[in-house]
DNA sequence: AGTATATGTTTCCAAAACCTATACTT
């Protein structure tokens, strides 16, 4: 489960479930755990946790003599913490801290795949950037000050997994974040972020006369990509905080229901240059690996009439059919429609869409609906659509 | 039974390697 939100929730879980407990003894390590033995023993100590991006720091604080010990965990693909009866620990518990209760319980680091690990000491891994959840301002500045880094030569969907800049973002979050703005995942990262920087300056100029409350509302209603890197994971934390125990049966359901794009029927998916699956809707963007076509949406195809076969649609006819489409479907991006049609029709499609959007028949959906206002100009101009 | 997939990172500069569990196909 582990991306930034799961680490943040694990930290909260430890502090809430273990904050009032006294632990005793040493840390029991399994034979195959991916981390060092922990040189710590204490008759009575407390545990406290803090998360930063995809790392979690655990502090062992002796109540009597002895010096504290810190550990920094990464969860890999399957890591997490659970407080269980010491007599019946979960499978794949690789590090255990026993309480002084009778019968004792154990806080267990559980990790079936063992891609997770821990290190001794309280230092965060060098080279990981500020946390998207807990250090938003520093995170934002770190990205915008370093746009000349070659990390931003890559497609935005791949840059978003770079923990030097996006500490806490993982595969499901990148899909959900890009989906909110309908940014093509294989648009170049620098292009997207330079546009954002410019937009930020223009907005600041334009809004400087507004009262602070209006400014705040504008910001809330039109979040940019970097803001979404904070607010989208915050949504996950909020959605799951009443289900803090990672074993809770409803947890998975709540999370699945929250997802709008990742693994959702009807969305497209592709492998990125690292072989990871990126889920998205609409255009893949120019840096798509091998220039492959996106997989067709997995849901039922919308009825297109004769739209896809004929070459000589008049603009008016296409416009009418698009109106029907836009009315029949849930908020639709231009790219969604385009991916059902041969590329030879894309230019006409764009013309027709412009016509539909600028007409009153646009049905009130012209505002923000097929294309997100923060991205549309580039999306349309940059891809010959 | 075998295959493909998975919320991550490292080692090296792309693709394999590290692992287990689960769902789905012969």
Structure, described:
This is Nei like DNA glycosylase 1. The protein is α+β, with helices and mostly antiparallel strands. The protein folds into three domains: 4-120, N-terminal domain of MutM-like DNA repair proteins; 136-280, Helicase, Ruva Protein, domain 3 (Orthogonal Bundle), CATH 1.10.8; 301-382, no CATH class. Helices cover 35% and strands 17% of the residues. The protein is built from twelve helices and ten strands. It has an eight-stranded antiparallel beta sheet with strand order 5-7-6-1-2-3-4-8. The chain has a two-stranded antiparallel ribbon with strand order 9-10. Residues 292-385 have low confidence and may be disordered. It binds one DNA strand of 26 nucleotides through residues 1-3, 5-6, 32, 34, 54, 74-79, 92, 111-117, 161, 163, 170-173, 255, 262, 273-277.
Outline:
It is built from 12 helices and 10 strands. It has 385 residues and is of the alpha+beta class.
List the helices and strands and how they pair.
Blueprint (H helix, E strand, L loop, with lengths): L3 H15 L4 E7 L11 E12 L2 E8 L6 E6 L4 E7 L7 E7 L5 E7 L5 E4 L15 H9 L11 H4 L11 H11 L7 H19 L4 H10 L3 H16 L8 H10 L9 E4 L5 E4 L34 H14 L5 H5 L7 H13 L17 H7 L3
Antiparallel strand pairs: 1-2, 1-6, 2-3, 3-4, 4-8, 5-7, 6-7, 9-10
Helix pairs in contact: 1-7, 4-7, 9-11
The chain binds one DNA strand of 26 nucleotides through helix 4.
Protein name: Nei like DNA glycosylase 1
Organism: Anas zonorhyncha (Eastern spot-billed duck)
GO cellular component, one term: nucleus
């Amino acid at each position: 489960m582990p991306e930034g939100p799961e680490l943040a929730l694990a930290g909260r879980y430890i502090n809430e479930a273990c904050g009032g407990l006294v632990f005793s003894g040493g840390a029991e390590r399994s034979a195959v755990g991916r981390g060092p033995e922990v040189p710590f023993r204490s008759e009575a100590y407390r545990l406290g946790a803090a998360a930063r991006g995809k790392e979690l720091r655990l502090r062992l604080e002796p109540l009597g003599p002895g010096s504290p010990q810190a550990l920094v965990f990464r969860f890999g693909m399957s890591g997490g913490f659970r407080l269980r009866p010491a007599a019946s620990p979960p499978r794949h518990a690789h590090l255990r801290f026993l309480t002084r209760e009778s019968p004792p319980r154990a806080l267990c680091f559980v990790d079936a795949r063992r891609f997770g690990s821990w290190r001794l000491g309280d230092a965060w891994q060098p080279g990981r950037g500020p946390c998207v959840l807990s250090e938003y301002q520093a995170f934002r500045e770190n990205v915008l000050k370093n746009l000349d880094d070659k990390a931003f030569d890559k497609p935005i969907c791949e840059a978003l997994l770079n923990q030097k800049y996006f500490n806490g973002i993982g595969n499901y979050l990148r899909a959900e974040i890009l989906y909110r703005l309908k940014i093509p995942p294989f648009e170049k990262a620098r292009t997207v972020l330079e546009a954002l920087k410019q937009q930020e300056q223009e907005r600041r100029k334009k809004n400087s006369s507004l009262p602070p409350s209006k400014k705040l509302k504008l910001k809330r209603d039109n979040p940019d990509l970097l803001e979404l890197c904070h607010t989208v994971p915050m949504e996950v934390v909020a959605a799951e905080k009443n289900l803090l125990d990672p074993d809770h049966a409803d947890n998975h359901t709540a999370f699945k229901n929250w997802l709008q794009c990742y693994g959702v029927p009807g969305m497209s998916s592709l492998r990125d240059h690292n072989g990871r699956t990126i889920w998205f809707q609409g255009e893949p963007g120019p840096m798509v690996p091998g220039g492959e076509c996106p997989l067709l949406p997995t849901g039922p195809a919308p009825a297109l009439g004769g739209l896809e076969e004929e070459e000589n649609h008049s603009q008016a006819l296409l416009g009418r059919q698009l109106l029907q489409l836009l009315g029949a479907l849930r908020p639709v991006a231009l790219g969604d429609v385009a991916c059902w049609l041969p590329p030879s029709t894309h230019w006409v499609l764009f013309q027709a869409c412009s016509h539909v959007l600028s007409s009153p028949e646009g049905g009130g959906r012209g505002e923000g609906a097929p294309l997100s206002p923060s991205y549309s100009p580039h999306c349309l101009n940059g891809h010959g659509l």
